Amino acid sequence: MSAPGSAEEQPGDRFATSPRTPRSADPDLAKRFLHGDQGALAEAYRRWGGAIHALALRFLPERTAEASTSRVFVDAWRNRASSDPVRRLGLLLLDGMRREIVRQRPELGHDEALAAAVDQAVLRELLSELPPLRAAVLELTLHGSLTATQTAERLGVPTHMVRLELGEALASLKPRGGGKR
What we know:
The chain has 181 residues and is mainly α. Helices cover 63% and strands 0% of the residues.
């Protein structure tokens, strides 16, 4: 692949499919966590601690947010045996923080700002699991309200590729494990 912005770079090159593992889509990490590997706990904290703490800081005082962030990881660790192994670990932790915020501030149980903040954090988490082109297509479709043609023009890829990537992105967001929605 050419250097970004070079004359040799073809439209869409920066989104070429890469063999990299998306930053949070590490099923091995979730399995290791579930089976009690303490290294997986440390890795999970490195991966999601900032996002969990940032969510806490939006709704809790700083000291409480720090303690609550720790509590979410400790609770997830203690209750890992009862966790759904199909569920994404990052989403489990975000849900744990949502519950912790409501525990600390019960008046936020039905608060739209909390629901929106959690939804945004979940969307960021899900987008981080997608290959770059797929994430860009989904983000432009959801947040930019662009048509497939407009998205294709913005990204420099064919329209059929945008439609394909959008379909794949939506399919990947469906609940895993064959459970009913």
